[in-house]
Every structure is written in structure tokens, then in C-alpha cells.
């Protein structure tokens, strides 16, 4: 049963990747603002545009649902929610968190999610599987364009677990080798790795 559940997570990642591969052929380049407003362009850092790009990805997913072969995509969730997009296909829902990588920068470890939030969500909802989807973007003055080749999808359940002791968040490279483990093993690792938050044992 454990192997079957691990395979389910892998299958969900592959399915969502297929959707976003199609989306990458549709996603437009866009100007964040007028060059008269920002005559020297945007600072080439994902913090400058991450929320906006995430909105472009999620809203374009909903807008192009029929083309992508899905029924719908919801994106109006509170900031505290682990996912910022729910892709709906039949009775199935796929929960996605969109990440952004600046193609001009190096691949560094990034804060992925707070340990406590992941632990609580995965404990409370046994059927909940989160998928991270990282899109690559190019900056040019005030213009943002998506890289047609860069797309990394992964599950927090299969992350190499390293917790940043300063903020109790899992850190990882967007591109990494998955470490296949069961949900129970994942939750146990979160309990063991958390230093600043006391996680209750079941």
C-alpha cells in the first residue's frame, strides 16, 4: 500500500507537469509597468515580481482550462494557504504552489515551506498532496518572459530534508534528486528536523 501511495504522488506530479508544459507554450511575456514609471527597469530579483508572476501562471491556467484539458483552476486562496492553485479534473483536485526562478541567477537553496504548516496540513488531511511547480523567468528592463524549457515540479514529501534553523523552513534546490519516502516517514522527518517548533506526536 505504501508503494502504491508513493506512486500516486509521482503520477500526480507527472500529470500536472503535462498541464504546465502545455501552458508554457501559451504564457505571454508582459510588461510589469511603463518604462516612464521605472526608467531604469526592475531590480533583477524574483522578489520584485514573484507574486505577480504567480498570478499570471494561475490565472492563465484557469483562463486556458479547456486548452489544457482541465475543468477549472481556482486561485483565490488566503496567503496562509500552502497552495495557490487548485487544478480540477473530474472529481480530482491537484494542489499546486507556484515558485519562480530568475534564469539570470544561480541555482541556490530556497525556502520552500514552514515545517509546522506542512506538518499540520499533511497530518490533518491524509489525501492532501502538495505539488511545487517552479517556472523560469527572464528579466529585461520592465519586461518579464517565461523560459520555455525551465520547469521543475516536486513534492515536499520527497524533498531532501534540511530545515533552516533561523526560520524553521525547509530549504532545498528547486532542481534536486527526489528521495522517495512514505507519508509517515515524511511526517516523522519533519518532527525530528524541527528545532524551533514543538510538533505533537500522534
Description:
The chain is an alpha+beta fold. It is 31% helix and 27% strand. The strands form two sheets. The chain has a six-stranded mixed β-sheet. Strands 5-9-8 form a three-stranded antiparallel β-sheet. α4 (115-124) packs antiparallel against α5. The protein is globular and about 55 Å long. It starts with a helix and ends in a 9-residue tail after the last helix.
Helix and strand succession? HEHHEEEEHEEEEH
Question: How many distinct helices?
Answer: 5
Distance between the termini: 21 Å
Biggest sheet record: 6 strands, mixed
Which geometry do the CA atoms define?
Answer: globular
- As residue ranges, the low-confidence spans are none
Number of strands: 9
Radius of gyration: 18 Å
Structural class: alpha+beta
Order of strands, main sheet, comes to 1-7-6-4-3-2
Helix content: 25-40%
Q: What integer is the average pLDDT? A: 90
**Fraction of residues in β-strands:** 25-35%
Amino acid at each position: 500500500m505504501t508503494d502504491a501511495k508513493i506512486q500516486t504522488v509521482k503520477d500526480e506530479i507527472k500529470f500536472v507537469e503535462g498541464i504546465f508544459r502545455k501552458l508554457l507554450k501559451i504564457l505571454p511575456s508582459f510588461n510589469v509597468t511603463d518604462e516612464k514609471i521605472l526608467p531604469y527597469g526592475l531590480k533583477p530579483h524574483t522578489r520584485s515580481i514573484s507574486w505577480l508572476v504567480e498570478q499570471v501562471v494561475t490565472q492563465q491556467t484557469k483562463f486556458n482550462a479547456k486548452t489544457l484539458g482541465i475543468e477549472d483552476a481556482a486561485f483565490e486562496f488566503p496567503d496562509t494557504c500552502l497552495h495557490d492553485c487548485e487544478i480540477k479534473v473530474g472529481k480530482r483536485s491537484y494542489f499546486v504552489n507556484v515558485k519562480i526562478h530568475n534564469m539570470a541567477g544561480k541555482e541556490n537553496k530556497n525556502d520552500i515551506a514552514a515545517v509546522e504548516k506542512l506538518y499540520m496540513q499533511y497530518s490533518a488531511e491524509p489525501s492532501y498532496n502538495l505539488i511545487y511547480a517552479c517556472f523560469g523567468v527572464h528579466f529585461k528592463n520592465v519586461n518579464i518572459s517565461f523560459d520555455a524549457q525551465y520547469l521543475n515540479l516536486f513534492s515536499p514529501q520527497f524533498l531532501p530534508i534540511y530545515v533552516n534553523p533561523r526560520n524553521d523552513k525547509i530549504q532545498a534546490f528547486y532542481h534536486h534528486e527526489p528521495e522517495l519516502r512514505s507519508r509517515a516517514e515524511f511526517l516523522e522527518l519533519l518532527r525530528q528536523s524541527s528545532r524551533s517548533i514543538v510538533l505533537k506526536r500522534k
